[in-house]
């Protein structure tokens, strides 16, 4: 209807301009305008406009739902000496679909820090999850939360490490949190077409569609999302190999005592192991890097005896 009226106005204006001796309006029409009319005639333009409206509406919905409180964190009554951990719900086979939530909660368990989970799905001060409240302070980002609690509560898991070992620990944490993580993101949102784990966590089709678009775009911007499946397999194999070679036969990465790097590695590997079933990286952990597979189960058994109480689909494995 709209384009029919535009076409009628266009024809009439052209005839009038010719009678008045004015340069034809037709000459002012750009190639883009012509293409738009052609697209309308073929039915392509309305479809594209409809898709654009749906996409923008969906993105706006997600922003309003999850980010509207990012600048204004609601006040909480924090129990004395208890950390309030805000996160976004349980996963079907691991306590969270977020490696960073699992990393931080594992840290709290390893250090035996009293904490309370707040599943309010609200973003923290920086528009991120997880985030914590303690002693009147809101802290965001899993690593910064750990650093804050280490100082505030004297919870230094790395106090038994040498200077050299601390440097190695930092390097491994950066690798898994800022590199291996993106392989998982790209695999989860691009190659894993079924999204079984998210459906098991009761994600709706709208949330899945919008999240997939946003996460694929983020992975592309970061760079990992530009690689094909074969290239990503080699990339993640090298990450796994570095971790496996260093871990060797040790119980934890620096011996018989867990440290911060164990929490970080466990958080990331847990997603490949429990939330990417049937994937190539999952099979790689089980067949090529058995010590990493055993490490994950060791962390689970030691620090998550109530694992089944914290997942949506309890199992005996």
UniProtKB/TrEMBL annotation:
Whether Metal-binding counts among this entry's keywords is no
Thioredoxin-like fold domain residues are: 99-192
Question: What are the TM regions of this chain, as residue ranges?
Answer: 45-64
Q: Name one Pfam family in it.
A: GST_C_6
GO cellular component terms, A-Z = cytoplasm
This protein's UniProt keywords: Membrane, Transmembrane, Transmembrane helix
Please name the InterPro entries in this protein's record: FAX/IsoI-like, Glutathione-S-Trfase_C_sf, Glutathione_S-Trfase, Metaxin_GST, Mito_Protein_Transport_Metaxin, Thioredoxin-like_fold, Thioredoxin-like_sf
| Domain annotation Metaxin glutathione S-transferase: ranges | 237-299
Name the PANTHER family for this protein: FAILED AXON CONNECTIONS-RELATED, METAXIN RELATED
- Name the family: Belongs to the FAX family.
Official protein name in the record: Failed axon connections-like protein
UniProt organism field? Magallana gigas (Pacific oyster)
């Amino acid at each position: 209807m709209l384009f029919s009226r535009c076409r009628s106005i266009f024809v009439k204006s052209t005839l009038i301009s010719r009678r008045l001796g004015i340069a034809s309006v037709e000459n002012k029409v750009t190639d883009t305008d012509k293409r738009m009319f052609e697209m309308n005639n073929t039915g392509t333009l309305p479809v594209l406009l409809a898709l654009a409206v749906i996409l923008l509406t969906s993105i706006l919905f997600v922003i309003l739902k999850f980010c509207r409180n990012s600048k204004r964190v609601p006040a909480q009554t924090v129990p004395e000496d208890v950390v309030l951990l805000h996160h976004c719900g349980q996963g079907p086979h691991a306590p969270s679909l977020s490696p960073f939530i699992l990393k931080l909660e594992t840290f709290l368990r390893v250090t035996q820090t009293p904490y309370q989970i707040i599943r309010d799905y609200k973003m923290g001060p920086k528009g991120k999850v997880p985030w914590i409240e303690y002693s009147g302070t809101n802290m965001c980002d899993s690593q910064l939360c750990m650093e804050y609690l280490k100082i505030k509560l004297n919870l230094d898991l790395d106090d038994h490490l040498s200077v050299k070992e601390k440097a190695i620990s930092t390097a491994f944490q950066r690798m898994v949190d800022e590199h291996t993580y993106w392989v998982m993101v790209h695999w989860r949102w691009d190659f894993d077409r079924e999204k079984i784990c998210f459906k098991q966590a009761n994600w709706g089709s709208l949330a899945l569609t919008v999240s997939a678009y946003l996460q694929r775009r983020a992975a592309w911007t970061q760079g990992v999302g530009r690689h094909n499946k074969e290239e990503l397999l080699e990339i993640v194999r090298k990450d796994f190999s570095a971790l496996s070679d260093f871990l060797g036969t040790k119980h934890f990465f620096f011996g018989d005592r867990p440290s911060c790097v164990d929490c970080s590695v466990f958080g990331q590997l847990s997603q490949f192991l429990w939330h990417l079933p049937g994937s190539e990286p999952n099979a790689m952990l089980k067949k090529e890097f058995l010590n990493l597979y055993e490490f994950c189960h060791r962390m689970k058994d030691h620090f998550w005896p109530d694992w089944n109480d914290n997942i949506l689909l309890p199992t005996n494995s």
